[in-house]
């Protein structure tokens, strides 16, 4: 049997490993001390025993995640409905609302008489209806900010609705999402049911934490796995590939580099011109995730609390900051009375005694250059013996990473093409 090394144990690497397990002798290399990458379930002491909480990947749906749905079926992973609802809290104006119902849109009752609030909701409605039409007609080219200004959207709507939403979904600073390609933003939001404050899709979560599918894949693949062992270099040597870590080197017939694009490029000993040109176009941002129990970072009105809570504030430097707080009890159906939250890049102080875990993730930053590079990424996997996969091949989400892993698996001999999701 030929030997395949997979560098990176996120869903891109693990998905490929699962579908290639009968074709290759698979070896996994992982720099972290756990397998799963952005799938990172953490155990905390709960009132009824240990409570498993997802601090990275949490939710998916059955419409736009077809490959993940198939993988979970193949692995017989138990899943359950999640709740996807959104709230907004602009800490400068005091505006708070949630899209769960008409009542929560006017959670601050005085806003019923506020023309500004009605205008804001009218703009949201116009955007939700017309943006997909513009996309279909090919009239959503260029950066998001340009798209919104040309169509007359107010600064308030842009700054306290569209940018925070985009910045929360892609975990990116609001200042950066202005340069995000409008067409990519609209396509993703439309396809994932995010246009409309209450997503129309039924979202699901892995029962007991997403780590369950990681464990199931690892058991099924039975690969030799090196944790805490970052790959330092990947070098082609004729038709063999040498993988070096601090603990030594090994030769393989094929290598799948299933890390982020910048990490992939950094580990290639002699990257080709194409690899430099394409992998070099992706930039990443650090995201600090805090798992905690401090409800002080949530919207002041409890009836506004949603699964995803965006908040914005203009800092002393005049720059608008945005943060997202995931309400984990709602997302993972965790019983009370303790409320668990995951704050992403929160600018407010979370009470230190209430922080249960701090984790640093990196998320791809999609600008026009990166999105253009995506059209050509499949060229990297035409011949091997080094192949690539990762969420940067598409929108940056779990299905995207898995899809890319399955694309690479196909090139490595797996019989099936991945399902093309929207
Ligand atoms: C906080 C957060 C919440 C999210 N929630 C969702 C969600 O609910 N739904 C959704 O669809 N998506 C979500 N995402 C996005 C999604 O989880 C990721 O895009 C996807 O899981 C990325 O998978 P990947 O395999 O490409 O990369 P990763 O999961 O990042 O895996 C890459 C792996 O490569 C390893 N690696 C890197 N360099 C080396 C090296 N030199 N040697 C060895 N190993 C190396 C890394 O340690 C890592 O384990 C979320 C992301 C974050 C950060």
Describe this structure as you would to a colleague.
With 422 residues, the chain is α/β, with parallel strands linked by helices. The chain has two domains: 159 residues, FAD/NAD(P)-binding domain, CATH 3.50.50.60; 206 residues. 32% of the residues lie in helices and 26% in strands. The chain has 14 helices and 20 strands. The strands form five sheets. A seven-stranded mixed beta sheet has the order 8-7-16-17-18-15-19. The protein is globular. Flavin-adenine dinucleotide binds next to helix 1, strand 5, helix 10, strand 15 and strand 19.
Index terms:
422 residues, alpha/beta, FAD/NAD(P)-binding domain, 2 domains, 7-stranded mixed β-sheet, 5-stranded parallel β-sheet, 14 helices, 26% strand, binds flavin-adenine dinucleotide
Task: List the topology elements.
Layout: E1 2-7, H1 11-20, E2 24-29, E3 41-46, E4 49-54, E5 59-61, H2 66-75, E6 79-81, E7 86-90, E8 96-98, H3 102-105, H4 115-136, H5 144-150, H6 155-169, H7 174-177, H8 182-191, E9 203-206, H9 211-221, E10 224-226, E11 231-237, E12 240-245, E13 248-252, E14 254-257, H10 261-267, H11 273-279, E15 283-292, E16 308-314, E17 320-327, H12 328-332, E18 341-344, E19 355-365, H13 368-374, E20 386-388, H14 398-411
Parallel strand pairs: 1-2, 1-14, 2-10, 7-16, 14-20
Antiparallel strand pairs: 3-4, 5-9, 6-9, 7-8, 11-12, 12-13, 15-18, 15-19, 16-17, 17-18
Helix pairs in contact: 1-9, 1-14, 4-8
Residues 7-13, 29-32, 37-38, 56-60, 171, 230-231, 258-259, 263, 267, 287, 289, 344, 361, 363, 390-391, 396-398, 401 line the site of flavin-adenine dinucleotide (FAD).
